[in-house]
Amino acid sequence: MPADGTAGGLQAVLFDMDGLLVDTEHAWGVAEARVVARLGGEPWTPEEQSAMVGGPLHRVGVYMAQRVGGDLDPDEIAADLVATMAELLSAGADHRPGAAELLDDLVAHGVPCGLVSSSPRLLVDSVLASVGGDHFTITVAGDEVPRQKPHPDPYLAAAARLGADPARCVVLEDSPVGVTAAERAGCVVVAVPFAVPIEPAPGRHVVTSLAEIDAARLRALVGGASATPS
Predict the structure, then answer these.
(1) Is the CA virtual torsion 71, 73, 76, 82 positive or negative?
(2) What is the pTM of this model?
(3) Architecture of domain 25-89
């Protein structure tokens, strides 16, 4: 049954994690720079960090292996990245502006929430332990789906586990890769750009902060195509 009790209402809100729910993008940049340095490569650049935002870890591993050269295993590089990130996250992670308030509002209004991340389960659980995961009915990690973002699989899996119609789910994303995944899944998308710009598009809503939206505005997006979150 949809959260608002009608077949046409908002059934769930699905949150990305890195850069949307919590500010981990800086930590990812630090981890990537450290791994590249250990591999003996040239210093990691801000442009390369931006290009990797929201993507699957294997893609980052492949890129780094090609960048450094030699007979390197992309999966071993990705594992090194995860271990480095876990060490950095042991100090904690902070909610992005408006995230905690939006989660509280959605739960208060009976809207199921899901967390859908490209990060592996180890890092998802590390973040949830830091910021509190009791708001989320389900969580989907990047190593729990056949194909990661920008494929639609993570969001389709989350909707299925919630018993929701993807078209009645609002996805909150901060990266172009994540936005593509959500749109391919048929979800309503609200983009909150962080490290990389995201342009408005038909059916896509762009805001500058999660503080601009609440349960009522997200319900309006599903209830009418002409509604806006502002």
Answers:
(1) positive
(2) 0.82
(3) Orthogonal Bundle (1.10)
